[in-house]
Each structure stands twice: as C-alpha cells, then as structure tokens.
Amino acid sequence: SRTKMRFEARADLAKAKIAKDLFKLMATKKTNLCIAADVTSTDEILKIAEVCGPHICLLKTHVDIIENFNISFVQALKSLAEKHNFLIMEDRKFADIGNTTALQYANGIYKIAEWANLVTVHSLPGQSIIQGIKSVAANVESRGVFLLTEMSSQGNLINDKYKEGTIKMATEGLDTDFIAGIVCQSAECFAFPGLIQLTPGVKIDEGSDNLGQRYNTPEFVVKEKGADIGVVGRGILNASSIEKAASLYRDRLWSAYCDRVGL
Ligand code: 5FU
C-alpha cells in the first residue's frame, strides 16, 4: 500500500511536478511537518517562518486573517521559503465556480497565485474549479492544489459519495497534473501513491478545542491514519518556545514516518 512506500519512490509516481518536488524536499530535509501559521500580523508570520523554517516542509497560511497585509511581506516570506527550503500553502479552501475562483486566486489584494505554491480547494463545484485555478496559474509546474475529502471538525457533512467523487477527480480527472494531494483524516481516502496526504488536527495532547476541532497525536495520524504530512497550528504556536515545539513535532512526525516505511 502507499503508506509503506518511501517518499522518494512516490515522487517518481506523482503526476504533478509540485508533488514530486514536495516529496523530494521531505525526503532530503527529513521533515513532514507543516506549520499552520495562524496569526494575524505579518511580523508574527515572518518570525514563525524564520524560527521554524529549518524544521518544516510546508508553511500554511490563512492570508485573510492578516491585519496588515502588504506586498513586501510576500517578498519576505518568499525569501524565507527559499532560505530555509520550504513550500508555501494558502489554505483558502476555494469553493466557487471556475471563473470566480480564478479571479479570487489571481486578483484582489492578496494575489495568491503569485506566492502560494499550493492552495486548498473544495471539490464541491466540480472539475471546473480546478480548471479555473489552473487557467490563471502563471507557471503550472510550480503550482498545484490539494483537494479536501475529509475535515477534522466534529459534525462535518462530507459523506462517502462526495469523497469517492473527489478522489475520482484527483486520479482520473482532466487536471491530474495539477493536483498534488488530498487533505483528509484517514489512509482509506485514496490508494494512489503519487498523491500526498495532508492531515490537520495534530497535537501531542489529543482532544479537542471548544469550536469543534479534533486532535490526534503525531504517531496516530502517521502510523494509523496514513498522514504523509501532519499540520500543526496551536500545538506549536501556543508553546513557550515555538522553536523547540517545532523541533519536537518534526522529530515525532518524522520518526513515525520512518517506522511506517521501515527506515
Ligand atoms: F481542512 C482542514 C481541516 O479539516 N482541519 C483543519 O484544522 C484544515 N484545517 C486547518 O488546519 C485549520 O484551518 C487550521 O489552519 C489548521 C489547524 O490548526 P490547529 O491550531 O492545529 O487546530
């Protein structure tokens, strides 16, 4: 099964160039930690990127929570991504028709297409949402999307039929060369080894928050649930030292991956 394969071998099977690059980056840098930089000032995000950069494969943003967004922030974040060798994902969870999504991706204040290597997308509107994003991606080789087939939140409405349709879109659709992976909670979601499983809801102290978020440990999500990349937000951001916490999560997630593939 895909969960027993090493990232290097899976890179060869990936259809999206950006997925190949991310698999290789993880294998070389020895990290499968994605930090969710959910803070509201550009300074705080840049500090997270500088301090945690050496430990992560991916930095995930919610750009619309930033209070003082500006273009020099984007330049600074891009240079830190280059310096520390990580990719940037904007967790926008697009969910509109292709034309509107294309405008939201490339235009407005944020111009996400210019700086985010990866974006998250709901499959709800159908194939046209992927086509819309792809149509305005300047360089298709350095861009890609993750489709959601499961959410970590309590009581979400995604059912089996929706999941199956989404996986079909990711593996048999028109734009498989632009789909890097799947955001989900379990290995059963898909079988194709060329897609990357990104799993949020990761915390050393399991449990939940008071707004429906549910957490599992790094070992559980990687070994039992097939996560290739674990997303950690508050588990790191609320620690007294974010640098130490990032290092700890990195070690726990990477050791779990090594155990899983027999490294
Ligand atoms: F698609 C999903 C999902 O199913 N659950 C999530 O929690 C995305 N997320 C994101 O991961 C969410 O928007 C946060 O940015 C992050 C989790 O942050 P936490 O602080 O670790 O709970």
From TrEMBL:
Q: Where is the active site?
A: 91 (for ompdecase activity), 93 (for ompdecase activity), 96 (for ompdecase activity)
Q: Where does the Orotidine 5'-phosphate decarboxylase domain lie? A: 32-249
Q: Which residues bind substrate?
A: 38, 60, 152, 213, 233-234
Q: Name one GO biological process term.
A: 'de novo' pyrimidine nucleobase biosynthetic process
Superkingdom of the source species: Eukaryota
The pathway that the record names for this protein is: Pyrimidine metabolism; UMP biosynthesis via de novo pathway; UMP from orotate: step 2/2; Pyrimidine metabolism; UMP biosynthesis via de novo pathway; UMP from orotate: step 1/2
Q: Which GO terms describe its molecular function?
A: orotate phosphoribosyltransferase activity; orotidine-5'-phosphate decarboxylase activity
The UniProt family comment states: In the N-terminal section; belongs to the purine/pyrimidine phosphoribosyltransferase family.
Under which name does UniProt file this protein? Answer: Uridine 5'-monophosphate synthase
Native source organism of the sequence:
Hermetia illucens
Included stretch of the parent chain: 225 to 487 of 490
